[in-house]
Design a protein that fits this description.
Low-confidence stretches: none
Radius of gyration: 19 Å
Strand content: 35-45%
Distance between the termini: 35 Å
Helix content: under 10%
Order of helices and strands: EHEEEEEEEEEEEEEEEEEEEEEE
Structural class: mainly beta
CATH architecture: 5 Propeller
CATH class: Mainly Beta
Number of strands: 23
Largest sheet: 8 strands, mixed
Length: 363
């Protein structure tokens, strides 16, 4: 069932929404010298729990690139890095996939799970552009690939590269056109979820609605696979549609909590239709009793929480974990001044609370 996120929902955002705490320089540290990271996700079990190595450390992935004077330049150099999180600190294990393996010129966001049947890691990711592109293009394709654990938690023997969500032009707009940051069309960010009710597998992703006249046509799409055939994916029509409202419903993902399904996404103020209404940069979501819906906006509007008013772009790309911890990265932090201050590091985790259709930040 397709549900619309409407102007009435966005207009219902209170003038003083729930906000997260301001970030100071003492609150974060780079993962590695001259490496900026942003969108991040843990390697998870199929039930959503983060995977831990033999020593109890968590293994994560994040987009990473060298630091540039213009932070937006990082998108043209993005690689998925493998990270280890232990004893409260982060260490960079380098690019997760070997050079030349990805079919894209860059690697954008996705998700990763451990296959209980084989012990392999399955990575779902976005290939941006095509390897060998002459110039920067914004075509996006979604792939899966398998790897085995090697020495020192690194991943080896990458194989079984497959375009897991093929183009569906009747529902989702192609991404072969040009564009600038914030205006390009989406077919990216595959996020895995297994439904505890029936064992079926799902990949949620960010897309753009086909067949609309509006430039603000963001949607959340989904592909499904039977419980006993987890690699047999079928692409479905859009689940959430923000036509004429918002251009990008980024990094959608689902958390099952106390018998309900919570579908979260991130979006930024500058990708709302300027004709309004306009919401703040923040974490948004809907809730349902079944994955098929109907879905209802959390807090009546869809906004879960926003950045502080004085630093409206301080963090971004939130991901809610099953224990309701929320990770993100430090974006333009510090407020004031005209120079952009890109953090490029993990922001402090936020603890969420959920109660039916309501949500907020734990004190």
């Amino acid at each position: 069932m397709t549900i619309s996120w409407t102007a009435a929902h966005v207009a219902a955002i209170p003038s003083s929404p729930i906000v997260i705490a301001p970030i100071a320089d003492k609150d974060f540290a780079p993962v590695a010298f001259n490496l900026g990271i942003w969108d991040a996700w843990p390697i998870q079990r199929r039930d959503g729990a983060p995977f831990a190595n033999a020593a109890g450390g968590e293994l994560w992935m994040a987009l990473g690139a060298p630091r540039f004077d213009d932070p937006d330049a990082r998108h043209g150099h993005a690689r998925i890095h493998l990270l280890r999180h232990e004893d409260g600190g982060w260490s960079d294990l380098g690019p997760a996939m070997p050079d030349g393996f990805s079919p894209g010129s860059r690697e954008w966001s996705g998700s990763a799970i451990v296959d209980d049947a084989t012990g392999d890691v399955i990575l779902y990711f976005t290939a941006a552009g095509r390897r060998g592109d002459n110039g920067l293009t914004f075509e996006q394709r979604m792939f899966s690939a398998r790897a085995s654990f090697g020495d020192d938690d690194r991943l080896a023997d990458w194989r079984d590269l497959c375009e897991v969500i093929p183009p569906m032009p009747d529902w989702y707009m192609p991404t072969t056109g040009g564009g600038a940051i914030g205006t390009i069309k989406a077919y990216r960010d595959p996020a895995y979820f297994r439904d505890p009710a029936d064992g079926r597998h799902h990949l949620f992703f960010a897309g753009s609605l086909a067949g609309t006249a509006s430039a603000f046509n963001g949607v959340i799409g989904v592909a499904t696979a039977p419980a006993d055939r987890p690699d047999d994916w079928t692409v479905q029509p859009p689940l959430i549609v923000a036509d004429d409202i918002n251009n990008e419903l980024e990094r959608p993902h689902v958390v099952f909590h106390q018998g309900r399904y919570y579908l979260f996404w991130s979006t930024q103020a500058h990708v709302f239709n300027p004709k309004g209404p306009i919401g703040p940069t923040g974490l948004y979501g809907m809730v349902a009793d079944m994955l098929s819906g109907p879905w209802h906006p959390i807090n009546g509007s869809g906004l879960v929480f926003a950045n502080p008013h004085e630093v409206p772009a301080q963090s971004y790309s939130w991901m809610v974990l099953p224990d309701l911890r929320v990770t993100s990265f430090v974006d333009n932090w510090g407020g004031g001044g005209r120079k952009r201050r890109f953090g490029g590091a993990f922001a402090p985790f936020v603890q969420l609370w959920l109660d039916g259709d309501a949500a907020g930040v734990a004190a």
